[in-house]
Amino acid sequence: MKIAFFGAEGKVGCALVPLLERAGHEVRGIEIGEEPDVAGLDAVVDFTTPEAAPANVRAALDQGVSCVVGTTGWDPQALGDNARERGLRLFVAPNFSLGAVLMMRFAEQAARYFPRAEIIELHNEAKKDAPSGTARATADLIGGNTIIHSVRLPGLVAHQEVIFGSVGQLLTIRHDTTARESFADGVLLALEKLPELPLGLTIGLDTLL
Ligand code: NAP
């Protein structure tokens, strides 16, 4: 596929672009201030900031190009409607790592048997939004008023613990992302499935598994 990558020079972009190219995609990075000229491409990928992603997606949809977005901390609903009206697709995943998606699924199952849970999400200090999109999505799956604790420190990549408590027992489900290359499989899967997705907005890697 011919792809434009918004945020190609960022931490995730630097890890992913070579892997997308190795998988056979032709990737063009688009940086801040560059004209978002994507007409005729097969897809746009965005790993930027919550402030930049909506404008990038809008520009892509205006030019008739479907999008795969990993940027967290923004609401894609309105642009999903925009995509559907144009016969396009907007796929957004708060976490492209397969292990993290399984962690969320296991947490949803455990929630049926434990009365209380809290989430600790730990990310690199550069992450701009808190709590993380993955933590908020996990809390929604668990239900109730699940408390989320956010840690931002140098040395961290992306980590999450879901701790379930009951009388006399604790269950901890933990996932650690140790390298950003872990997001490549999820992005490649999203690009492969993009043409088959329903028009408009699809959220979450679990919908593709
Ligand atoms: P980062 O290192 O700050 O990279 C963001 C990049 O986007 C920077 O190179 C930045 O350029 C660039 N950028 C900002 N505005 C732009 C625009 N309008 N057009 C083009 N490029 C623009 O952040 P990151 O760690 O790579 O993370 C990026 C996003 O992905 C964050 O929202 C993060 O939470 C999310 N994320 C999602 C997943 C997932 O699995 N869904 C995984 C990891 C991270 P400058 O440096 O020049 O400002």
Average residue pLDDT: 96
Strands side by side in the biggest sheet = 2-1-3-4-5-10
Going by CATH, the homologous superfamily of the largest domain would be: NAD(P)-binding Rossmann-like Domain
Q: Strand tally, please?
A: 10
- In percent, how helical is the residue content? 25-40%
Number of helices: 6
> Taking Cα atoms only, what radius of gyration do you get, to the nearest Å?
17 Å
At CATH level 2, the architecture of the largest domain is: 3-Layer(aba) Sandwich
List the uncertain runs: none
Associated small molecules: NADP nicotinamide-adenine-dinucleotide phosphate
Would you kindly provide a written description of the structure presented here, covering whatever features stand out?
With 209 residues, the chain is α/β, with parallel strands linked by helices. It has two domains: 2-92 and 182-208, NAD(P)-binding Rossmann-like Domain (Rossmann fold), CATH 3.40.50; 98-178, Dihydrodipicolinate Reductase, domain 2. It is built from six helices and ten strands; from the N terminus they run βαββαβαβαβαβββαβ. The chain has helices at 11-22, 53-62, 77-85, 98-111, 133-142, 184-193; strands at 2-6, 26-30, 43-46, 67-69, 89-92, 116-123, 147-152, 158-166, 169-177, 200-203. Strands 2-1-3-4-5-10 form a six-stranded parallel beta sheet, with helices on both faces. The longest helix has 14 residues, at 98-111. It is globular and about 60 Å long. The two termini are 21 Å apart. The mean pLDDT is 96.
